[in-house]
Design brief:
The structure holds two protein chains of two kinds. Chain A is mostly beta strands. Chain A has no helices and eleven strands. In chain A, the strands form two sheets. In chain A, strands 2, 4, 5, 6, 9, 10 and 11 form a seven-stranded mixed sheet that branches. By secondary structure, chain B is mainly beta. The chains are: A mainly beta, B mainly beta.
């Protein structure tokens, strides 16, 4: 089944403890991206990647890192999480390189205490 | 990207067509109309998009007015699983996946 898989689905952590949210797609998509969704603020793009080893900042990249060493994987890294990074996170991918038609994962609900 | 205006909510009877309006009066010539939906806290799901011609796929139809200032998403035979928030977005295709979700329309399909 074609899908974007995120793990974990739920994560509770404490301030400053490094964490990684994994994202993998099995559709051979070129484009991948991370978003966060907050009440009243809608969906905001964190980082995106249009190809292996190519990443770029979205609208809210501060406090996050990403890597794209393989086409299928695009992990989101929080080196030192803070409470304002408590959010619902989505990974998405697209066959084209500009994110024309996005397929989203099921989401990761992160709580930073 | 141009802003969109959608009604906050609408109800639809199961099996009937659901017609979701969207106003985008400031749309530019190179901006497409996209529709996504989101079932509670799940990942958004792409539905359809178009530039100026009407479009249809297995999920829905998109009707864009001739002046492109508004559009309607049609779910031909609504089911309970179509209950979701529907987002109308206008964007240039090459905007690197940036999606400005507005408030959307909460659609509730009732038996």
């Amino acid at each position: 089944e074609a899908q974007v898989t995120q793990n974990p689905r739920y994560l509770i952590t404490v301030t400053g403890k490094k964490l990684t949210v994994t994202c993998s797609q099995n559709m051979n998509h070129e484009y991948m991206s991370w978003y966060r969704q907050d009440p009243g603020l809608g969906l905001r793009q964190i980082y995106y990647s249009m190809n292996v080893e190519v990443t770029d900042k979205g609208d809210v990249p501060e406090g996050y890192k990403v890597s794209r060493k393989e086409k299928r994987n695009f992990p989101l890294i929080l080196e030192s999480p803070s409470p304002n990074q408590t959010s619902l996170y989505f990974c998405a991918s697209s066959l084209d390189r500009v994110g024309e038609k996005l397929f989203f994962g099921s989401g990761t609900q992160l709580s930073v205490l | 990207d141009a802003k969109t205006t959608q009604p906050p909510s609408m109800d639809c009877a199961e099996g009937r067509a659901a017609n979701l309006p969207c106003n985008h009066s400031t749309i530019s010539g190179n901006e497409y109309v996209y529709w996504y939906r989101q079932i509670h806290s799940q990942g958004p799901q792409y539905i359809i998009h178009g530039l100026k011609n009407n479009e249809t796929n297995e999920m829905a139809s998109l009707i864009i007015t001739e002046d492109r200032k508004s559009s309607t998403l049609i779910l031909p035979h609504a089911t309970l699983r179509d209950t979701a928030v529907y987002y109308c977005i206008v964007r240039v295709v090459s905007s690197w996946g940036k999606l400005q979700f507005g408030s959307g329309t909460q659609v509730v399909v009732t038996p």
